[in-house]
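We close this part of the discussion by returning to an individual protein. Part of our work consisted of pairing the sequence of a single chain with a tokenised description of its backbone. The amino acid sequence and the backbone structure tokens for this protein are reproduced below.
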Amino acid sequence: MRKLFPFILAIVLISSCKSQTGNDQNKTEATSAQHDEHESGSSELQLNNGAKWKADSSTLQHVQSLKNIVRNYKQSGEKDIPVLANRLQESLNGLINDCKMTGPDHEALHHWLEPLLDKVKDLKDASGDKGQDMVKGISDQLELFQKYFD
């Protein structure tokens, strides 16, 4: 079951972010062309020709929620890693479900989000010093958002 979870989550992420209405067919075709063009580039997160990518308000709110969860965990001195992992996963699920971004900005978001999803998944099985190191890695990934997105 644990091996299926990341696969299912990836499917939900991809399908929820790409839902379009029938009236947006031309927009979908243009976005698809941009997507294909973007896909041929690097898979690493990079600035948009020196500028930050644009994130929608929902994404910004969810990222702030994720940061708050980690900050509160650190400030409280809490040590329950599985509880933290579950809180982060719930917030990530909200981010994924509310995703309405499209185009290159959306693809850049995926380059930032995919490592975070992996880190949170790995955190679920961590404990002790290893778990705390993983929390630091998650915190660092969350801070990268500020560098690449407005």
